[in-house]
Design goal:
With about 240 residues, the chain is an alpha/beta fold. The chain is built from ten helices and six strands. It binds uracil. The site of uracil has 12 residues, from helix 5.
Length: about 240
């Protein structure tokens, strides 16, 4: 992107934000004039309207992708074919966070497109969403050789970018898939997924529901109902916040 174009798009994002703030200000004055001393609807809905627009979030994610560039920040860059940044709706209500790209994801540059990805897509659809309406990312963005566990330095190199993705998307809920995502977001290497799953915790002010990784569920289909129970808790909270 040329410098002039970048300046223009920054200027248009600034104008867009200013106009949203103006609209919200007018709306607050309107309800005040009607005699309300608090908003007669969920402030979450208001925040949704007042927060960055979907277009602004898309632009922010594009800038973040540019910032990552042809990343050489860790040794995983040596063997990867593609950086797997993340996919989905920049304005998603739910963000799923897995571990790391596998072979299929490395080839296609998109998270969760292999067998485990099909199971995740089924789960998302069973929850009542289309895959493209949620956001899907991983703790690390490059495939570890032979799909080994990501190492601490690799997680650290990628973490800033995942954190920025969370900040931009500002999802209402995060669902972590598997042990590595749980350990990373809790900053606890000893935490057990079997004990933690199904219990909300918070990361950057966002409620997080940890559940099993779809690859684990492919190996242990008898545990699928547990993941189903975990995501039900998210749907319940989501419905409560809508009402
Ligand atoms: N497993 C993950 O954790 N992430 C992917 O993108 C694919 C498989």
């Amino acid at each position: 992107m040329g410098r002039t174009l970048r300046l223009r798009s920054a200027e248009s994002m600034h104008n867009q934000r200013a106009s949203v703030i103006q609209d919200v200000k007018r709306m607050l004055e309107y309800y005040q004039a009607l005699g309300f001393d608090s908003m007669p609807f969920s402030t979450k809905a208001l925040l949704g309207a007042a927060g960055r627009s979907a277009d602004g979030k898309i632009a922010d994610l594009m800038h973040l992708r540019e910032e990552i560039g042809i990343c050489r920040r860790c040794k995983l860059s040596q063997g990867r074919k593609n950086i797997v940044f993340g996919t989905g709706n920049a304005d998603a209500r739910i963000m799923f966070i897995g571990e790391a790209p596998g072979k299929d994801e490395d080839l296609q540059g998109e998270p969760f497109v292999g067998e485990a990805g099909m199971l995740l897509t089924n789960l998302i659809e069973k929850m009542g969403f289309k895959r493209e309406t949620v956001y899907i990312a991983n703790i690390i963005k490059c495939r570890p050789p032979m799909n080994r566990d990501p190492e601490e330095d690799e997680i650290l190199s990628c973490r800033t970018f995942l954190d920025k993705q969370i900040d931009v998307i500002a999802p209402e809920f995060i669902i972590t898939l598997g042990r590595i995502a749980l350990m990373t977001l809790t900053n606890n290497n000893k935490i057990k997924i079997t004990a933690a799953r199904g219990n909300f915790f918070e990361y950057k002010g966002v409620p997080v529901m940890p559940t099993f990784h779809p690859a684990y569920l492919l190996r242990n289909p008898k545990d699928k109902w547990l993941t189903w129970a975990d995501v039900q808790k998210v749907l319940e909270r989501m419905n409560n916040s809508n009402s």
